[in-house]
UniProtKB/TrEMBL annotation, chains A, B:
Assigned protein family: Belongs to the peptidase S51 family.
Name the UniProt record assigns to this protein: (Alpha)-aspartyl dipeptidase
Record's keyword annotation contains Protease: yes
Keyword vocabulary terms for this entry: Hydrolase, Protease, Serine protease
InterPro entries (UniProt xref): Class_I_gatase-like (IPR029062), Peptidase_S51 (IPR005320)
Length: 235, 235
């Protein structure tokens, strides 16, 4: 049975790395003593080693030992064998390219399907959707495909940002960008504000945290979903 | 001899479409009576016809007749024969995909090299760089390549946006995104603020408008360039 936490962001403004998720993660990873961290998204260009150290330091709180996926000779096998998996944020294009290059994408999809507890933040959440086509990231490398894990039957926009009142900037708002996505694609897109996450248990998908999320569907007006909403039927 | 105007945006806040560029465009397109408009970037999903009408309406001011590239049977031939070319803004992924699909990319590169006056705004400016890898747009379609025209020997970030003071948002700033680009790529990136444009005459590249632009080079601190700066040596 699928078991995922899919978070908009790893860190809230003024907070420390992952701390706002502590109670949820304690429950999510209960019984796990090891975790494979996927550091491929490399925020700010950080190395795989340094990024893994950051995650490992946090997970000592839960008495979980972390190893980076880059440390294994066979990335696919490492994910198949993993007790738990966490994919950190950063650049989704870099992440997806590396997941394909190492053969990890298919193995991760399979591990999630067979119930390996998974945590994704930001880019690590983006890849849980059908495609990475609603990422906010710059296309700094060219991935072999935009198709991602499809662990949920719709797309995500993490770090969802409302239009800034009084802004003089003429670049597209997030809402406009997602509207453009729907000129070419049919899947719903959930805009997850920082502080929200999805909890997936089997086919049940629940919006967690204290914030509303914004749902975009092709040909329909966007709608606000309350915290606690059941998104299990969304596709 | 190359002759381009490469603008950050088509429209300034509170202004009308292209109006701030009127004097520059009068000079740029002097002697032209027809222009081919490339509507492929489809901002907000607008149709090729409607987008072309918008451009055509504006160009009546300069007594220039506009035809959309989608109206020609042979897009490559249309660009080879064009007296002048304008590529409008919108989504760079959609634009680049369609330029490759129609065979227009190579023809446009050639037309620019041989001196056809060119205007680009936003996505239409992005494609003047070496690659589209510093676009702000969402990857809503999958292009066959990120390589673009290389009409200038560096990359652009149109609608360049400074960090917003006091923002509580944890998504990456534009500067962080460009820094991440430089973790994987060497070309310089010029952040063009709304109101700035580049004027290219042969090998001469001048920063026009009243604003500074922000220059990012791999392994160096970003620097502010004054309006009027000569960027001819930048590569």
């Amino acid at each position: 049975m699928k078991k995922l936490i899919i978070a908009s962001t790893s860190t809230l403004h003024g907070g420390e790395y992952l701390d706002y998720l502590t109670p949820a993660l304690q429950e999510h990873f209960a019984g796990c003593s090891t975790l494979v961290f996927i550091p491929f998204a490399r925020p700010g260009g950080i190395s795989h080693d340094d990024y893994t150290k950051k995650a490992a330091a946090w997970f000592t709180k839960l008495n979980i030992t972390v190893k980076g996926l880059h440390e294994f000779d066979d990335a696919a096998q490492a994910l198949t064998d993993a007790e738990a998996v966490f994919t950190g944020g950063g650049n989704t294009f870099v992440l997806v390219s590396q997941l394909y290059k190492t053969g990890a994408m298919a193995a991760l999809e399979q591990a999630i399907k067979t119930g390996t507890p998974y945590l994704g933040c930001s880019a690590g959440s983006n890849i849980c959707g059908l495609t990475m086509q609603t990422t906010n990231d710059m296309p700094i490398v060219y991935p072999p495909s935009f198709k991602t894990l499809g662990a949920i039957p719709f797309n995500l926009n993490p770090h969802y940002l409302d239009p800034i009142p009084g802004s003089l900037h003429m670049g597209e708002t997030r809402e406009t960008r997602i509207k453009e996505f729907h000129a070419f694609n049919t899947p719903p897109v959930l805009g997850l504000r920082e502080g929200s996450w999805l909890q997936v248990n089997g086919k049940q998908v629940i919006l967690k945290g204290n914030l509303q999320a914004r749902l975009f569907r092709q040909g329909k007006e966007p709608e606000e979903l309350e915290a606690g909403s059941d998104l299990s039927g969304l596709k």
